[in-house]
UniProtKB/TrEMBL annotation:
Protein's UniProt name: PTS system cellobiose-specific iic component
Pfam family, one: PTS_EIIC
Phosphotransferase system EIIC domain residues: 1-100
GO biological process, one term: carbohydrate derivative transport
Source species: Lactobacillus crispatus
């Protein structure tokens, strides 16, 4: 429940601001994993693990707070055009993976990431 909430809240927030919701959701889920405490075994060679309890309702508060915060930071960077710029020698498919798609300005290449239908961008 916590992991799904982290992704879903960031996805919805980013879509409201016309940025790539999938990328914002992935960033939020990554932040959720980073902030969740891990467990260590007391063996000679310690083994690190991830407790399942924080994936459920125990991690929901953290998921809500950091889902909203990471999506706000993500959309702020995209809307202020603060992105990784790749040189012209980099193939376009690789360069597009470093930027979110902005449908509001008509720069949408992939209809899966945008709220508008595919035909409206052609006309």
């Amino acid at each position: 429940m916590g992991l799904i909430a982290a992704f879903g809240i960031a996805w919805s927030y980013a879509n409201q601001y016309k940025t790539d919701g999938v990328s914002a959701g992935i960033v939020s889920a990554s932040v959720f994993f980073i902030l969740t405490p891990s467990i260590m075994s007391g063996d000679k060679v310690p083994v690190e693990g991830f407790p399942y309890t924080y994936l459920g309702s125990r991690g929901l508060f953290v998921a809500i707070i950091f889902g909203l915060l990471s999506a706000w930071i993500f959309q702020w960077f995209i809307n202020h055009n603060i992105q990784i710029k790749m040189p012209a020698t980099v193939p376009p498919a690789v360069a597009k993976s470093f930027s979110a798609y902005d449908c509001a300005n008509g720069k949408c290449d992939y209809h899966l990431f945008c709220n508008e239908p595919r035909l409206s961008s052609i006309m």
